[in-house]
Amino acid sequence: MLTAILVDDDYPVIRYLSQAVPWSELGIELIGCYYSGLEAWEKAQQSPPDLIITDIGMPKMNGLEMLELFRAVQPEIRAIILSCHNEFKYAQQALKLNVGEYILKESLDIEQLQQAIRTLVAEVGLNRQQHTEMLVYKQKQSQNRAALKEKFLKDTLYQSWDKGAWIEQARSNGIMIHAKNYIPLVIVIDRPEEASRVRRMSEYTISFAVENIMQEVLEADHSLFISRYSHKEIVILFCSDQPSKDHQAIYHSIQNAASAVQKYLKLSVSCLFGAEARSPEEIRGTLQRMLREKIQRFYLPAAGIHRFEEVCFSGEDIYAEYGTLYAVINDDIALNRNTELRVHVKEWREWVASQKFHPNEVKECVLRLLMDLQMKTKQLLQSPLPITEEKLFSVVGDIETLEHLEQWLVQYLEELARKISMFSIKSKRSEVIKAQQFVISHVTEKITLEDMAGRLNLNASYFSRLFKRETNQNFIEYVNMLKLQKAKELLNQSEKTVEEISEYLGYANKSYFIKLFKREMGMRPSEYATWH
Asked: Which residues form the Response regulatory domain (predicted)?
């Protein structure tokens, strides 16, 4: 339904027209009646109507002046003038403003007005239909064009061509790529899954929008071919007769295009320059490596422009520092120390980057860390796992850069720390919370009920009753539970003997430690170590 407003300083005219015209039957919603052009402009400019029925002579702003203002913000607006002026100059001005009908009030007939409105409604409907058809046509044309480009890219990647036949194949598809040399680029959309979720657009739509923005910016100064390879990757071939001279200009153009994507879509892209090529075979070899070997991008920071280079990954053991990593992360999580947690994850990421371990090894190490921490969460605090093992493998496996992995890992560990904090510290009493935190961070020391009570300036008997009431667990039972959890970690991850572990955890009597362990686990520590 279209919208309309009435504008006339003659109140009886406004009242008569608002009641006499069957607006709904004509497909019109009357959304306002105003008594001057200025009032109509001030109140309706934010949401202009489709149709204005107005007088000309009004105080402060006449009807023609008002129509000029409305047309400036909505050129398609329609108008009917009801006027007492039978002068040519007014009719001439009305024609310039594309007024649909000029009716003199002295000869106003309601049927004539209704017919004028019907004519305008039909014209608007026809124009909108034509506009919609044009949009559909352009969309289909764009989709067909995109399909042709994607097919040509796949042909380039997977077929052998001599240069002449390749150029002719491109030309037959409306693609002009005749040049001595070509500079290949791969544009990678950073984290398209997140962008899709935040912007509520499909990944296909996002990649389509990125391609269009980059093409619009780049083709103004360069001869090029651009096409999507996947919802994450876009391929560009710059045509160049002087690559050494053109590189700098292309680099700056890519910076501008990436900035445009950031400005209009609020997402970042990473750009990888490949080696210059003279033939389809060289292009194919370069692009196949750039597109297939995604692990080569693992150590590149996002939202940057890089030259694609194959990385020689380290053969060193990434687990050499695993025990230390687990210990510090475990303590940070146990004490909910987010600042220290971020620092330790960053230090580990920097070490990994300096060593250049294979990305699969890095992900496997992260998965082992997470599974060990989740197992502790489940066994120690009887809380559900934050993410299932299958989901963890899927999420970590899909992460493509070390930078993203670090950010995701910090978020995950902070959430895990929050959950552990929630489940482990159920008391609202500060004395109990302080006692739990002390035990978590001093689990390798000898801790007695009397010592803990003294630290809190409490009577030992009172502290024992308070801890039991608040946690439904004796204090010494809580201490032993944490120590045995630590013992299992040491048996799994260190070469320490049972006697060394017993002493390390503050047990003066090895037999007592073995007895506690067997009561908890159903087997001796030596059997547990062999079994695991």
From this structure: 3-120
> What average pLDDT does this structure show over 416-441?
74
In 3D space, the residue among 355, 360, 333, 358 whose CA is nearest the CA of residue 345 turns out to be 333
CA 479 to CA 520: how far, in whole Å?
13
List, for residues 404-416, the tens digit of each pLDDT value: 999 999 999 988 8
Is the predicted pLDDT of residue 92 greater than 60, yes or no?
no
d(CA 168, CA 215): 22
d(CA 293, CA 351): 23
Q: Report the distance separating Cα 157 and Cα 151, nearest Å.
A: 10
* Average pLDDT value for the chain: 86
Q: Residue 270 is encoded by which pair of tokens?
A: 């990473």
Residue 60 main-chain phi, psi, to 5 deg: 70, -45
Say if residues 222 and 158 touch (Cβ distance below 8 Å): no
DSSP state of 97: T
368/366 Cα distance (integer angstroms)? 5
Q: What is the pLDDT of residues 254-285, one digit of tens each?
A: 999 999 999 998 899 999 999 999 999 999 99
- The two beta strands, 233-240 and 224-228, are antiparallel
Structure tokens at 342: 């971020």
For residues 476 and 435, give the distance between their C-alpha atoms in angstroms, rounded to a whole number.
11
- Between CA 393 and CA 142 the distance in angstroms is 38
Residue 104 pairs with which residues in a beta bridge? 83
Q: Tokens for 131?
A: 């506009």
Question: What gap in Å lies between CA 411 and CA 194, rounded to an integer?
Answer: 14
